[in-house]
TrEMBL record:
Catalytic activity: N(6)-[(R)-lipoyl]-L-lysyl-[protein] + pyruvate + H(+) = N(6)-[(R)-S(8)-acetyldihydrolipoyl]-L-lysyl-[protein] + CO2
NCBIfam families per UniProt: PDH_E1_alph_y
Organism lineage: Bacteria, Bacillati, Actinomycetota, Actinomycetes, Mycobacteriales
UniProt domain Dehydrogenase E1 component: residue ranges: 4-298
Protein's UniProt name: Pyruvate dehydrogenase E1 component subunit alpha
């Protein structure tokens, strides 16, 4: 999990540089600060499980095992990207790994996840669908429709809310009458509890407990993963709505040094291990950037492909 968090952090830091250099374009939403969720939650999944994510999904895609080369090439819009260069940052996809996006619509993944879980259960597969979404999605109508139906039909969905306290510039308390989001899910009869989303070990433990319950046929669960994004909502956001002191207070709970310190205390890591991991990860990122820059763009003649079915 430490390696995974470092991969995600440094991948996204490199994306900031590439974005500033206009090597990659479009929207860019970073999960820096929130890496414990991707690393912890996805570490307990089986290959047959499904994942549905949001536009803040680079970490989820990497932790799900999509090769960094394919993610980076997608950032560049190259044909070797995991969505063949047609998706970009917000639409990472990998059907073979059951990673069903990346979605630009707030709350848009929830009905997709419920449908996937319904298909799995009708086809007798003992798979769990993990549905990641933000605190902003909890205010959407789809959230309520989907939790109700999933609970009613006891569908195998793990609803994983990344509560980073803000939906763009809107603080949680300005958007929700009840700010304890786990209570909102509990009202639909789901097993539901809050988790320290800055602690990868706590996230993994909660995810294990939830997925075991779901696999046991006891219906969907909801985790409210309390976290914080260290950076602005996106590269276009001036971030004028948050207190500097609040940001610093959350940065003091950075999940990466925290896990490293715990591993050091347990004797599982030596003093140089973090730097060694960072060097390995940097080499992986350098190779991914070089491969993406060498990869082709889709030819203009293919522009209308995938718009209509080619064969019937
Ligand atoms: C249906 C819909 N409404 C509004 C938007 C514009 N929008 C993009 S991101 C965002 C905030 C969502 O916040 P949250 O769900 O907490 O996720 P976070 O960005 O904090 O990870 C909004 C309102 C959108 N993309 N889709
Ligand atoms: Mg949010």
């Amino acid at each position: 999990m430490l390696r995974q968090m470092i991969r995600i952090r440094r991948f996204e830091e490199r994306c900031v540089q590439l974005y500033s250099a206009e090597a990659i374009r479009g929207f860019l939403h970073l999960s820096i600060g929130e890496e414990a969720i991707a690393a912890g939650l996805l570490s307990v999944l089986e290959p047959d499980d499904a994942v549905v994510s949001t536009y803040r999904e680079h970490g989820h895609a990497l932790a799900r095992g999509i090769p960094m080369d394919a993610v980076m090439a997608e950032m560049y819009g190259r044909t070797t990207g995991c969505s063949h260069g047609r998706g970009g940052s917000m639409h990472l996809f990998d059907g073979a790994r059951r990673f069903y996006g990346g979605n630009a619509i707030v709350g848009g993944g929830l009905p997709v996840a419920v449908g996937l879980a319904l298909a799995d259960s009708l086809q007798g597969r003992n798979a769990v669908t993990v549905c990641l979404f933000g605190d902003g999605a909890v205010a959407e109508g789809e959230f309520h429709e989907c939790l109700n139906l999933a609970a009613l039909w006891r569908l195998p969905v793990l609803f994983a809310c990344e509560n980073n306290q803000y939906a763009m510039g809107t603080a949680l308390r300005r958007e929700h009458a009840v700010t304890d989001l786990s209570l909102r899910a509990a009202s639909y009869g789901l097993a539901s509890w809050p988790v320290d989303g800055m602690d990868a070990v706590a996230v993994a433990a909660a995810a294990r407990r939830a997925t075991e319950s779901i696999r046991g046929g006891r219906g969907p669960c909801f985790l409210e993963l309390r976290t914080y994004r260290f950076r602005a909502h996106s590269m276009y956001d001036a971030d004028r709505y948050r207190d500097k002191a609040e940001i610093e207070q959350w940065k003091s709970r950075d999940p990466i040094p925290r896990l490293f310190a715990e591993l050091r205390a347990d004797g599982a890591c030596g003093p140089d291990d973090q730097a060694a991991l960072e060097a390995e990860v940097d080499a992986e990122i350098d190779a991914a950037v070089a491969a993406a820059e060498a990869a082709p763009l889709e030819p203009v003649t293919d522009l209308a492909r995938h718009v209509y079915a080619e064969t019937r």
